[in-house]
Amino acid sequence: MGENNREVRTRMRYYMLRIPILAFCLTAFLAFAPAQTPPGGTTAKTPPAPAAADTMKEVPLEETGPAPTAPKGEHELGTEEIKAEERLRIDDLKPQFFPMIDPYGPINSVLKTDKYVYDDKILTAIDSIAVPSHYLHSSYLRSPVVDRLITGDVLVFLPRFEKNVASWELVVSNSNGETVRRVKRNGNPPNIITWDGRDDAGAVINTGETYDFTFYAYDAIGNQTRIPGRPQKIRGLLYSSAGEWVVAISGDEVFEPLSTRLTAGSQRWLEEAANVVKEKFKREVVVLVYTEREELSAEQCQIIARELGGRIRLPKDALKTVPRFVAGLQPKFAKVEIHIR
Q1: Model pLDDT for residues 166-184, shown as the tens digit of each residue
Q2: CB neighbours of residue 270 within 10 Å
Q3: How far is Cα of residue 134 from the mean position of the Cα atoms in its chain?
Q4: pTM for this model (two decimals)
Q5: Does 220 share its domain with 246?
Q6: Which of 168, 198, 233 is the last residue of a domain?
Q7: 268 falls within a domain
């Protein structure tokens, strides 16, 4: 009995799957079959459509027959495709996004450093007031090698030792070998040792003089390590003393030897001195020139006053000159001092 039921169900599925296929084939046959000829030998014709009037007539619902068609050239019923094109301009600004991080940061951290890089044009490319003077010095013993005013520390020494140091000593001497300043300490030296340009008595060193620097280091049993510096000439200083500012310039940087003629580089010195006067001036400016002849000192004082007066405007009688002559003064110690009060 069960086997008969399975056979019946199988046959029903078979015929049910074939029914849609048969229906599709019958529909296609009726749609494409030619028109049938009636027994009289003639085919049934569709009566012609009446002529269309100028106005459309309403066809009663009870009337039957084909719908009226419009003649050729008139509006016809059907599907019409309409195409159009229009150009539009959008003036709205697109939103811009700026990242908060620098995509080149990792590369710049390698390529760029925080070190100072100097070239031959540095003296004309930077302002001397904004840069500490010892950054402009380039030797192991950083000392003044540039012909401009030194502000603040005259010497900045950077000692480096691989082993511990029991004691150390820094000695500054002049061209005659005389000790001007001696600094001695126990233990390892600091990373930076500075000298303010004053001797052991507190007096400011002379411009025009050449100074030598020597650093000594001693270990625990007394062995000495000597590091000599390169002798350097002090050409110009800016320092504060007794409530006033002093610009001191070596005489041979401004005037030719024993002459009133200005040197080729004097204009740079005078420009820098004038800038200091503009910044520090309160009530008066006094120009002093030291030479070995009184007449020469007086003439050079007038030249310096005239040069400063052409660069800055001061109140009446605020600029004064005081010639100073010292008998037997060595030419290298001739100097120009501008006291700003």
Answers
A1: 999 999 999 999 999 999 9
A2: 21
A3: 24
A4: 0.57
A5: no
A6: 233
A7: yes
